[in-house]
Automatic annotation (TrEMBL):
GO molecular function: ATP binding; glutamate-tRNA ligase activity
GO biological process terms on file: glutamyl-tRNA aminoacylation
GO CC terms, sorted: cytosol
tRNA processing is among the record's keywords: no
Keyword list, A-Z: Aminoacyl-tRNA synthetase, ATP-binding, Ligase, Metal-binding, Nucleotide-binding, Protein biosynthesis, Zinc
Name used for this protein in its record: Glutamyl-Q tRNA(Asp) ligase
């Protein structure tokens, strides 16, 4: 099996990012698997110069190694173009997903009896002329993590007024490309969060695969890359749980279009998020907890690793420990302790277990 680190070089990594990196590394290396590094720099406006080098330096510093050269998404545009072209001529209601005897712990699609009526004859990938403001105005208020479900305006335009769509394209109107979601539930068994099921049309909605500025969207490139790189073991933050359903669907469509028929379904482990003292998810702009700030204050790699291991429930206290010394712990316990207690974790400066250097920083 093959695992991967997939950091976005939009800033220096913080304790939450490092916890995810440690989890991914342990999952792969404890089983002697291959580990790849992919720098997710496709969203160029968010990329900070040198952040890729800081990431590699911080991974090195913690003793988290990878195999081969890092892969940069910004250098793979041709691959994404090719993948997009395999969707040419496909319709949203071609069912690519077979219902089979599904081995446990693998994602699968289950097609419901009815095809959503407006899926009929809609191309799998269609142009969307909506601005963000249009979408906000036509949508129900966002909930939870702010995942916005596209209200389907341009899907209906495509169905009802294909001539107008052609005209607008010929005129060069600014548009993104969306992938149409069928009325299918995607289920998978997450190693930490257990059985998951998402209804693609209702929980996810038609999703952008190429933005109106011409850049490919995260969900599409991650799926193309994981498939092309042979990644079949994915460990990342639980904010991406529902993205897994979308990525499973895109992956199935890519495989059905002949991009890789031998590909196994990946195994997934999503890990809880780490919140700051105020209960908000750690962000890269919170400089006090980033690796640069911690390292310059003399915090050691073993101290950081100990906190990450404690956040992953691999240790009862955040004692310093080297990453390679955690391999045996992970081999013995795996995801079991985290599965039993997977609520997001708040870094509370009043927690007597929190080491001084961390309590001072939060
Ligand atoms: N690059 C994404 C991030 O930093 C992670 C993507 C993934 O693990 O699929 O949030």
């Amino acid at each position: 099996m093959t695992g991967r680190f997939a950091p976005t070089p939009s800033g220096r990594m913080h304790i939450g990012n490092m916890t995810a990196m440690l989890a991914a590394w342990l999952d792969s290396r404890a089983r002697g698997q291959r580990m790849l590094l992919r720098i997710e720099d496709i969203d160029t406006p968010r990329v900070l110069p040198d952040a890729d080098r800081w990431i590699m330096d911080d991974l090195d510093w913690l003793g988290l190694d990878w195999d081969g050269e890092p892969v940069y998404q910004s250098q793979r545009i041709d691959l994404y173009e090719q993948a997009l072209r395999t969707f040419d001529g496909q319709c949203a209601d071609d069912s690519p997903i077979e219902i089979d005897m599904v081995p446990r712990e693998t994602p699968t699609g289950v097609r419901s009896d009815d095809v959503a009526p407006d899926t009929a004859r809609i191309p799998l990938v269609y142009p969307c002329f909506c601005s963000r403001a249009d979408i906000r105005a036509a949508s129900a208020p966002q909930e939870g993590d702010g995942f916005q479900i596209y209200p389907g305006t341009c899907r209906r335009l495509m169905r009802d007024r294909p001539d107008m769509v052609r005209e607008r394209l010929a005129r060069g109107d600014r548009h993104s490309l969306r992938i149409a979601m069928p009325d299918i539930a995607v289920s998978f068994d997450d190693a930490v969060f257990g059985p998951q099921s998402f209804d693609l049309a209702h929980d996810i909605g038609d999703s952008v695969i190429r933005r109106s500025d011409g850049l490919f969207g995260y969900q599409f490139v991650v799926t193309v890359d994981d498939l092309a790189m042979g990644v079949d073991s994915i460990v990342r933050g639980r904010d991406l749980l529902h993205s897994t359903a979308l990525q499973t669907y895109i992956r199935e469509r890519l495989i059905a279009a002949g991009r890789d028929d031998g590909a196994a379904h990946p195994a997934y482990a999503h890990i809880p998020l780490i919140d700051n003292a105020a209960g908000r998810r750690l962000a890269k702009r919170e400089r006090s907890l980033d690796m640069g700030a911690l390292r310059s204050r003399g915090v050691t790699a073993a101290q950081v690793t100990g906190v990450c291991a404690w956040l992953l429930r691999l240790a009862e206290t955040p004692e310093p420990i080297a990453a390679h010394d955690l391999l045996d712990v992970f081999r013995a316990d795996g995801w079991k302790p985290l599965r039993a207690e997977h609520a997001d974790r708040r870094l509370d400066p009043d927690d007597p277990l929190l080491p001084r250097w961390l309590a001072d920083a939060v």
